């Protein structure tokens, strides 16, 4: 039984889907005004593990992810610049060019990290109508009010507003030191912002209330409900989304529909550097291209993230990443060695695979799952073909691209020149006849041609030096 920690209940719960064998999964995507940093990417790795675990449990996963290409302001208090417009100004490009460039960069990061692409990828700018329609629903229910700069959600109208974050609303109001403008309450938030009267934005649309652009929170509500329906299984994001973005999504969804729309809320913890949260605003972040420039395999970063539970803070350093890279290299070497020792993966070790799945099903316990994987690698009494099959099955969850490593190893074997293979065969004949001097002479000839031969339980294995 798969168990997941539900932020809403603050408990680990048995996962029970709404529809048997099917799962609706929404994951908050990037705001594409700049590169994603590796702290952001840690969240997408956790969500990828969740999807893979769901799939190995036999669920068909309808995975939806948004692209925020408008409306995400620099302040959670609904003030400041739109991050997209700010990015365009910074790079002296159009907002549309900025969105296109950084969207492509983001999906390159996902590919480098072997993260499965969502089934549905939806851009905020392609769903303006859905967003304005949802705001109209909220307006009809008496949950909105208008100020001089936009349409706002009145959080006082919901008795359980803030339940996800367990907000102390009275304390927030009493301790408020934020410039509220015309907002009625500190927690009220923008659904639609009016364009400035004295200037034209690059991204703006007509609406029932005037020309403007949608708020950040309304896009995820509108698109998740469109593609997953008014009741779906899981919504994910980073832990920083709990107090504002996801809290406001719940308010919008339940305010418009009058019932709970998401059963499980999952959140990944922060990546730290020097024990501080990594973030663009702090300037203490690294991007995946920077990691690649330092000659690290992106999958070493994936392995690094798997070494900690997704709900635990993880402190990043290049020294720690080097340790992960070394572990990944040892794993790849083990797979290559197995490729030389066996011609094909066969049946799996069902006992150890069950232990792996139990770890994965215990709220995605990847450190424990990795420990089981290394047991397989170090199991000297396990036949090579079973070991290889078990590792490949495990990697369906871990996503460390072991099939690609195996394919490369097999390709290297296939590329060995016929004359070298003739020497290998002759050496094996001499070895079986216990003609040790002839065997050593032939090994030396093989080495002189740039190859080495290893004797394995299933016969000689040859590889380039």
Main features:
16 strands; Rossmann fold; 5-stranded parallel β-sheet; elongated; 4-stranded antiparallel β-sheet; alpha/beta; 465 residues; Four Helix Bundle (Hemerythrin (Met), subunit A); 16 helices
Give an overview in words:
The chain has 465 residues and is α/β, with parallel strands linked by helices. It folds into three domains: 3-268, 3-Layer(aba) Sandwich (Rossmann fold), CATH 3.40.50.620; 288-413, Up-down Bundle (Four Helix Bundle (Hemerythrin (Met), subunit A)); 416-464. 46% of the residues lie in helices and 17% in strands. The protein is built from 16 helices and 16 strands. A five-stranded parallel sheet has the order 5-4-3-10-11, with helices on both faces. A four-stranded antiparallel sheet has the order 6-7-8-9. Helix 10 (318-341) packs across helix 14 (402-414). The longest helix is centred in the last third of the chain and has 24 residues, at 318-341. The model has no long low-confidence stretch (mean pLDDT 91).
